[in-house]
Amino acid sequence: MAEEKLQFQAEVARVLDIVVHSLYSHKEIFLRELVSNASDACDKLRWMALTQPELTADDPGFRITLIPNKDAKTLTVADNGVGMNRDELIENLGTIARSGTGEFLRQLTGDSRKDVSLIGQFGVGFYSAFMVAQSVEVVTRRAGDAHGWRWTSDGTGSFTVAEAADAARGTRVVLHLKDEEHEFLEPFRLRHIVKTYSDHIAIPVQLKDGDAEPETLNEASALWTRSKDEITAEQYKEFYHHVAHTFDEPWLTLHTKAEGAIEYTSLLFVPTQKPFDLFQPDRKQHLRLYVNRVFITDDCEGLLPAWLRFVRGVVDSPDLPLNVSREMLQHNPLLKKIQNGLVNKLLGELKKKAADAPEDYARFWDVFGPVVKEGMYEDFERRDKITELVRFRTTHGEDLVSFEDYVGRMKEGQTHIYYITGDDRAAIAQSPLLEGYRAKGVEVLLLTDPIDEFWVANAPGYKDFGMKSVAAGGTDLAAIKGAEDDKAAEERKKDEAPREDLDSLVTLLKATLGTKVKDVRPSDRLTESPVCLVADEGDMPMHLERLLRAHKQKDDETPRVLEINPAHALIKHMAARATAGASPDLEDMAYLLLDQARIVEGEAPTDPVAFGKRLAKVMAKGIAA
């Protein structure tokens, strides 16, 4: 087949420019990325050879070889792993960030220290080679194929693919180094990089310098199989970089070995930074499963529940059969036991962190709290343990609060844990719905994660106290002995509109607004604002309905209850006028009150054009008066 010239996908040139120039200070990472790719290729072939031993019969010893050539000014990274065919070559090397080029570009900040952590996460690690190479050649043959392929590019916008009949099994990446990058041809420099970044690789990484015998540069044993006493913090960190494809520090490292009814070793990491795919719809977990150090899969749903998908690492068990398939894994009872052990260990460590290092735990919670709360909704078996880990922002300051903290501060007569949901913490903290609770000194949870609407609806509460939204109809504030003493409450009660005037206003508002509201009633939760909207008992919460409408899961809007503040000057004025009879001005004011309440709740006015006209009319009369 003749050589073909093909174009990179649309945004490749921009990504390559960013990788080459923005990440210049971290240029040695190109070797870590190429060695990591080679290691994965060997792992995959080792697994395939379990059922197809003929694939490795000609060369069974896996290895990664670094070949510096000072005369040619090239550095070769070769492996005898699974290799690629033509379609895989074009797909893998002709498409940057198959998991989302646009998302990769959106997450770039311009800060090279932060941007470098995105390289591996988005599958662009190979392209870091262009930081040091003016052109790159890849010669590869997939295991089992009769011939191979050659891919070449200078990284500017196109690449060529041609047949390579003499290609060996695996992949050879030949970097034609730039003049200023010849340091990567020096054996001492290569030794240092491999020892720093790739010592944990379970495949031997060898240096072949001229006619000398190959020299193994790494420990070449699976890190998780070593004793914890033999492993340094730096080695743990670099292994985390390898399995997580990132450059941030691991927030938590958990290395355990389970023995007994089932035996397995696990090396788990909780990241410091949020992985880019944390909220993708498939919610895939990212643990690698090994059987006796033989890689099986990195896509095993049963190892961890979806609400722990941010955890990275490896699990190795000798009790699973070597020829296990992904379909068999889904129904393997041993996997369920491993999952229980892993989750219990993680929950125990998180609980310990929360107790011993609350400030450090707060940083974890700010990043992964929304995901952990998914377990409150999905994982009934472990809900009690997750409840101990959950933290909240509240109306009582900036510090994170646990359920235990909240219950310890409850007021006399308080029988519920109160909460309010919304999109923005600052906005909901100013909601009129909180006024009565503030007056009583009652703490309210401020919930702003989309999952909050789902787990609170199914949560049994904490201890003997149930959960209750302050946006739901029917408060029990009168029974709570709070900061506002009886005398102050009595004085406020005296300042309310006369009952007969208030009844007249309620009747007028109901008649004017009609089906736009479900009901109109005096409020005991308002102390400063004139009106608010609440969901009637049994109706869908307003914020949840807004979320569903935004995602096209609900079309119609449920009418809400309009509550009015009997002590507010505007309401008292309107009530006095309502007693004298309806008027066009009162009808305009009725609609303005409803629209004001809707705006405060994050909704648009019922009729924006009419709202503008009414507002201008009322303002004009106010100026004229």
Description:
This protein folds into 4 domains: 4-219, Heat Shock Protein 90 (2-Layer Sandwich), CATH 3.30.565; 224-356, Ribosomal Protein S5, domain 2, CATH 3.30.230; 391-484, 3-Layer(aba) Sandwich (Rossmann fold), CATH 3.40.50; 492-537 and 550-624, Up-down Bundle (Four Helix Bundle (Hemerythrin (Met), subunit A)), CATH 1.20.120.790. By secondary structure, the protein is an alpha+beta fold. Strands 1-6-5-4-7-3-2-8-9 form a 9-stranded mixed beta sheet, with helices on one face. α19 (499-513) packs across α22 (584-600) and α22 (584-600) crosses α23 (608-624). Residues 97-101 have low confidence and may be disordered. The protein is built from 23 helices and 22 strands. A hairpin with a 4-residue loop joins β5 (148-153) and β6.
Overall helicity: 25-40%
Strand content: 15-25%
Radius of gyration: 32 Å
Q: Would you tell me the structural class of the helices and strands?
A: alpha+beta
Keywords: ATP-binding, Chaperone, Cytoplasm, Nucleotide-binding, Stress response
Region (C): 547-625
Protein name: Chaperone protein HtpG
Main location: cytoplasm
Q: Topology, pairings included?
A:
Blueprint: E1 4-7, H1 12-22, H2 29-48, E2 64-69, E3 74-79, H3 86-94, H4 101-107, H5 112-115, H6 118-121, E4 133-141, E5 148-153, E6 158-164, E7 170-177, H7 187-197, E8 205-207, E9 215-216, H8 233-244, E10 250-258, E11 264-271, E12 286-291, E13 294-297, E14 312-316, H9 326-330, H10 333-356, H11 358-372, H12 374-378, H13 383-389, E15 392-394, E16 397-401, H14 403-408, E17 416-421, H15 425-429, H16 435-440, E18 445-447, H17 452-458, E19 466-469, H18 486-494, H19 499-513, E20 517-522, E21 531-534, H20 542-550, E22 560-564, H21 569-579, H22 584-600, H23 608-624
